[in-house]
Amino acid sequence: MRFGGRVAAVTGAASGIGLGILRRFAREGARVAALDLDFEGAQAAAEELGGDGSAMALQLDVADGDSIQAAVDRILAAWGRIDVWVNNAGIFYVHNIADPPDMENWERILAVNLTGMFLCCQAVTRPMMERGSGSIVNISSIAGKMAFPEEAGYCGTKAGVLGLTRSLAVELAPHGVRVNAICPGNILTPMLQSVDARICAEEGWEPGTHLEKTAQEVPLGYIGQPEDVAAVVAFLASDDASYIVGQAINPDGGLVLY
Ligand code: NAD
Fold first, then answer.
1. Which of 108, 138, 182, 189 to mutate to test the pocket of ligand 1 (most atoms within 8 A of CB)?
2. Is the CB of 186 under 6 A from ligand 1?
3. Which of the residues are catalytic?
4. For 118-133, what is each residue's pLDDT tens digit?
5. Over 80: is that where the pLDDT of 41 sits?
6. How far apart, in whole angstroms, are the C-alpha atoms of residue 38 and residue 59?
7. Are the C-beta atoms of residues 3 and 30 closer than 8 Å to each other?
8. Which of 180, 198, 225, 222 is closest to 94 using CA atoms?
């Protein structure tokens, strides 16, 4: 059990990749905190995993510093430590730059995907530094490394996650805290399914057609599952990765090779 006796907190844990990560840490022996805007979803996840009190659910909006601090305080009060913090909560939207400005969505994606991650790192850094150990894993995307049209907000924030990760990585490594990032490719979650639904509606295709076309572009030939990401997160958070700092690893079936 790589995480026996340890505590792992995951933002956006009610759905998709975050839920997969939460399940992975629980399976490997961690006490887990499911943190999400969707409290009912977080509660369902915690109930699934924590019949013995080894899982808790907390409502948190990563765009709200007070709710982040409250969540950190609650976890520390209950379990006395946070060994792993996974910044997974994220949102997506598309906007054609020639269309009228869409400042509401732009501000929200910055607040959730980038500022929220910064605030979470800030809140969890001190307790980790005080213990002289900890691992933070930030979920970026292949969109942080390559370009997609009409995704300036998403690509911009996901690239920002990589810069934030590298800076914090070298700042916190001397304190025993490792910070790394993950850049998933196409992973079957509600977020990707909503992209498929939108594009299929626009193109007049059967639902699922966009996913099939996308899979054909992946060198491995299929769409990934949350578990494919969770396995890499668990590795980076574990002692197996004790000499890995500031990296951005792509579980993407071979789409991006750097
Ligand atoms: P999802 O929509 O299935 O789940 C996202 C979760 O985050 C939801 O439970 C949602 O309630 C929560 N959330 C949203 N805003 C929040 C906020 N302000 N505070 C707290 N929680 C909030 O999405 P997913 O596909 O599982 O994506 C998870 C992460 O992985 C995101 O950061 C996303 O950008 C990234 N990602 C996804 C894919 C993919 O193909 N699915 C690919 C690359 C990166």
1. 189
2. yes
3. 154
4. 999 999 999 999 999 9
5. yes
6. 7
7. yes
8. 198
Q: Ligand 1 centroid vs 70 CA: distance in angstroms?
A: 21
Which residue's alpha carbon is at the smallest distance from atom 23 of ligand 1?
A: 191
86 forms bridges with which residues in the sheet?
10, 137
User: Atom 39 (ligand 1): residue with closest C-alpha?
Assistant: 187
DSSP symbols for the chain? -TTTT-EEEEETTTSHHHHHHHHHHHHTT-EEEEEES-HHHHHHHHHHH-TTS-EEEEE--TT-HHHHHHHHHHHHHHHS---EEEE---------TTSSP-HHHHHHHIIIIIIHHHHHHHHHHHHHHHHT-EEEEEE--GGGTS--TT-HHHHHHHHHHHHHHHHHHHHHGGGTEEEEEE---SB-SHHHHHHHHHHHHHHTPPTTHHHHHHHHHSTTSS-B-HHHHHHHHHHHHSGGGTT--S-EE--STTS---
Mean pLDDT of 21-37: 98
As given in the structure block, the two tokens for residue 157 are 């924030």
pLDDT of residue 148: 97
Query: Does the pLDDT value for residue 51 go beyond 90?
Result: no
Backbone φ, ψ for residue 206 (5° rounding): -65, 140
191 CA → ligand 1 middle, Å: 7
